[in-house]
Amino acid sequence: MTVTNPSQHSVAESQADQQSTVASESSLFPTYARYPLNLVKGKGSYLWDDQGNQYLDFMSGLAVTNLGHAPDGVIAKVKEQLDELWHVSNLFHIPAQEKAAALLTANTCADAVFFCNSGAEANEAAIKLARRYQQKVLGKGRFEIITFKQSFHGRTLATLTATGQDKVKEGFLPLPEGFVHVPLHDIPALKEAIGPHTAAIMLEMIQAEGGIHVVEPAFLAEVKALCEEHGLLLIMDEVQTGMGRTGKLFGHEHYGIEPDIFTVAKGIASGFPVGAMLGKGYLREAFTAGSHATTFGGTPLAMSAVLATVETILEDNLPARAAEMGDYLMESLRTHLAEQPFVTEIRGKGLIVGIACKEAVGEIVLAGQKKGFLFVTAGPDVIRFLPNLYVTKEEIDTAVSLIVTLIEEHVAAKATIGGE
Ligand SMILES: Cc1ncc(COP(=O)(O)O)c(C=O)c1O
Hints:
By secondary structure, the protein is an alpha/beta fold. Helix content is 39%, strand content 17%. The strands form 4 sheets. The chain has a 7-stranded mixed sheet with strand order 4-12-11-10-7-5-6, sandwiched between helices. The protein has a 4-stranded mixed sheet with strand order 1-2-3-15. The protein has a 4-stranded antiparallel sheet with strand order 13-14-17-16, with helices on one face.
């Protein structure tokens, strides 16, 4: 067991007090409710703060560091590229970008790739491509994108409008037109939402930010059939579910259903900011020269991180490992939390796992940090585990034992307060 002696965390606690003072004097916009830790170093499944405290990391930068922190192979490739050439304008050919795109298309159902810098930007590209294909190539006045309640697609104006959660929209009116939301797994509502202006249906394979809700296979099959019947494009947002995390390279592979377009970011470059939109070959006609662009998309430096990350995921067969370790983690959680009435459900796929609870779990996350254990929530009452794909059984055993204790302590503390 490598988690730090809890006594060391008293230092972290006093730090926390200092930090809340510092926050009000910060030169940053206060857009994030930050946890009171200064993480300064990472390796594999562990992070260290500036006080030398060690943390077992079961959040992976929110599904970003899928290879663990500071993966040697990626570091070596990026260092090599740092000495050669960082940036080339997309006005020129970029061989590493071609190579990364070829690697992705060879291993997925897609035929073409557009590189950008984030998940939101990849989803913007998907929305633009769907509209332009419907309007310019098919000559139809279609623009509407149907998405699902509780979904999350990003924070740009179009992607927050696509997102099925009101909290991300407050104060940003007017929102762009052309987005409709229906409840997940509600086929009658979906059928009713499809109209003459519908261009595409867009969904996550697991609603992650929305609480770890895995899409049901029968529902996805119906969605695909409706797309075919009405000439709509099927867009899958694989920003959180992609790059091996669910037990397949991409979440949709579990269903045997191919999207027209899918998006990826987070885990594609081990923490280097890269997003990508992948699509079928017939969509090439819609994204011609001048139709879409981004300055930093697919630079040699970014592509060195993508190539090293994707090659490692494939060579080490990390999707299969995620499937095996995910089963082990979920089974172990189900066994050890079976008698815990605070927990209502363990759900997920591969190494994206939610522990649904009866009440808010924010305090459990903070208590975890004091024990040297990092994880996040998915909505107010779901604990979310996103370990890296090399996570070991021993690390999972440690995590399970810690979360069982944390939940027990939380429940006991609540009972004491309630009884006072
Ligand atoms: C499913 C999904 N789509 C899109 C995004 C937005 O990605 P980014 O923050 O890189 O813009 C996220 C981020 O959490 C996500 O989980």
